[in-house]
Amino acid sequence: MIERLVGARLGAKARLGAKARSGAVGGARRWKGKRALEAARMLDEVVDTQLPLLASFDEERRRRSADYLAELVKLAQDYRYYAHGWIDARELDRRGHAAMATLSKLREDPEARLIAD
What we know:
Blueprint (H helix, E strand, L loop, with lengths): L1 H49 L8 H25 L5 H20 L9
């Protein structure tokens, strides 16, 4: 009796799981798309708050800071591309790693340092 109940329950779960999986892909994609748009908005906010500060910098510091902010803008755009389905998660990850490498290079370059040590 118990085996029959467990078997029936497992069969129902399997059927439910198949239905859930077929809709879950679209649901997960929408959820990830929303998260990607939130990340893009957050990056936009960072750029928007930092952009007015550039006017007070000397030309060299302004150029370096603008390069840094431009990289953040490109990354935000990549998140939007992912949210719209124009690139996949692997490409977003590749672009994210490339952006982080560029940002790290800008931070580590002794000539690009914003504050002299």
